[in-house]
Amino acid sequence: MMFYLWLTWLASPLLRRIAGRAPAEPQRILVIQMAKIGDLLCATLVFREIKARYPQAHLAVMATAQNVPLLRANLRVDEVIVAEAKAFRGLGGKWRLICLLRQGHYDTVVCLNAGAAYAMATLWALIPRRLAVQSNFGGASHRLAAYLWSEVEMHRSDRLIQATYLALLARLGTSAGRLDKEVFTAHGAAGKADAVLGQVTGVLVGIGVSSANRLKALGSEKIIAVARQILAAQPAARLVLIGSGEDKSQAEEIASQLPPGTVIDACGVVGIAELPALLRRLTVFIGVDSGVTYMADAVGVPLVSIAGPCNMQETRPLGKQVIILQRADLPCAPCAHIFHAPYTCRVGTRACIEGIDARQIAHAALALCGDPLEISAS
Q: Which CATH class is domain 189-377?
């Protein structure tokens, strides 16, 4: 990597000259966001603010396959480019990325990922205006790559990533925008949600079954304990287990430990772009720091977020009815950041998750449901 970086750095004056000047008004803009669902939802303000400032510009987004349905439903996005970061490894992969970028004839790129490969490829692709967020955890290669961009905005661990995005977009001429996330729903999603939830009209409590990062996961035992506490206070409530098809067996295990008829298993039943419609039907959602939790935040569902190891100064639900549960007494937390996300607990205890007990979670959810006993106790 360093060899390619030095080569690009040496060639950069010539490449910049060949690329020429960017048009005053961007015509073809590419946003690169190759991270997971939660990161994509935090980035939706980028699409919104670009289109607000440059409504006639063609806006393309490069993203991984899992995020494509959400982007295709997004009314602000004109084109979706499906890619996987692993395909850009090695010299051949970098050449493929350069060719992909050249095909789009973009005059502006906004990169929300910290990879040095994007800094090199966008310059070799002769894109004249190249803006990027710079990682606050980057090493020597990231620092060198920063000089290849036209403009960079350094992220800080004490501010929301959305604020960093807005600061970067200001260099593109946008005015101060909103920090909130947004999500669009696929056609027919409301009917799919109705089919899953049926005619239930009482309290619907959604629970995220798992997390892509197992460091954050609540685990079946705690979810069952939370569910029992909620049902003890609200016997008529229904619990909606939400996750992917891979979570199906865990959801079945959880449901088997709860009273018959109290659980609706939605794992793998609705697609990611249909899920917002289902979330809107919920009374409250309970989840860890995950993409589904941020989607619930985007649709305005009252939610309980078990933040665990995550830095809530950088990323968190921003809705009006949000309760964030996080231990503030741990010297090891937060250890998970936007540009530095561990997948194992370095002290081996997962105290940031295990130290939030089921009673706390259930009480927070019941308070958001409007349970008078929980409101008076909180």
A: alpha beta
Q: Which of 66, 77, 137 is nearest to 110 (CA)?
A: 77
Residue-wise pLDDT for 321-372, tens only, equals 999 999 999 999 999 999 999 999 999 999 999 999 999 999 999 999 986 5
> Of the candidates 315, 369, 268, 275, which has an alpha carbon nearest to the alpha carbon of residue 161?
315
| Total-model pTM | 0.94
Neighbours of 271 (CB within 10 A): 14
Q: Which overall architecture, per CATH, does domain 2-170 show?
A: 3-Layer(aba) Sandwich (3.40)
What would the pLDDT profile of 318-333 be if each residue is shown by its tens digit? 999 999 999 999 999 9
Using CA atoms, how far residue 52 sits from 106, 185, 187, 353, in Å, is 19, 20, 24, 40
The DSSP secondary structure of 118-165, one letter per residue, reads HHHHHHHTT-SEEEEEEPTT--HHHHHHHTTSSEEEE--TTS-HHHHH
